[in-house]
Amino acid sequence: MQHARSGNFVAVRLKAPEPVHESLCEIARHYGFSSAYVISGIGMLADPSIGYYDLPGQQYHEETIPGNHELLCLAGNISLRDGELMGHLHVTLSREDHSAFGGHLFGAKVGLTCEVLLAVLDPVQMWRQLEPEFGLPGLMIDPPKEAGD
Q1: Domains in the chain, please, with CATH?
Q2: What is the distance between the alpha carbons of residues 79 and 61, in angstroms, rounded to a whole number?
Q3: Collapsing DSSP states into helix, strand and coil, what is residue 121?
Q4: How far apart are CA 69 and CA 29, in angstroms?
Q5: Beta pairing partners, 4
Q6: What average pLDDT score do residues 128-148 get?
Q7: Which residue among 15, 55, 111, 115 is least enclosed by CB atoms within 10 Å?
Q8: What is the 8-class DSSP label of residue 58?
Q9: Are strands 125-131 and 68-81 parallel, antiparallel or unpaired?
Q10: Which backbone phi and psi does 90 adopt, to 5 degrees?
Q11: Cα 60 to Cα 39: distance, rounded to the nearest angstrom
């Protein structure tokens, strides 16, 4: 993996077969941040596990799509859940016939390359907290304190 920080942005290049979620969290640990947004991501993913959330049933439906797929868009964020870094990522991918599909990304390895731009939000803190009405850990945001607060 390659990465470099410029102000509040981190440019990232992951290579096959690096795991996407784990690699982005490793970069966050390297630079010492826990709150960021994935602004952009393109490349190729291998054997992505994707799904969607069934709100009435309050459960995810997950499917692994074998093979390499063109990564058209990677978006999401990095936050804390139970004190640990986690990536909440969504993808749009394409097949050989150019048809697109996507959803919540549970996991994937890089198929060839994955080029990502992170926007670091320090000193904003983001974390996940269970929201019982949805059955999911929702994103909580703690804005920085203003001078005199």
Answers
A1: 2-142 (3.30.1330.80)
A2: 23
A3: coil
A4: 28
A5: 11
A6: 82
A7: 55
A8: T
A9: parallel
A10: -125, 150
A11: 24
Q: Could you give the dihedral angle defined by the CA atoms of residues 42, 44, 45 and 51, in that order, rounded to the nearest 10 degrees?
A: 50
3-state secondary structure of 138: strand
Rounded CA gap, 94 and 102, in Å?
8
Q: In this predicted structure, which of 6-20, 40-54, 100-114, 133-147 has the lowest mean pLDDT?
A: 133-147
Read off the DSSP letter of residue 67.
S
- How many Å apart are CA 52 and CA 102, to the nearest integer? 9
Give the model's confidence band at 55: pLDDT under 50 very low, under 70 low, under 90 confident, else very high: confident
> What does each C-alpha distance from 120 to 51, 79, 115, 116, 128 come to in angstroms?
26, 11, 16, 13, 17
Count of H helices and E strands in the chain? 1, 9
Positive or negative, the CA dihedral 19, 42, 64, 131 is: positive
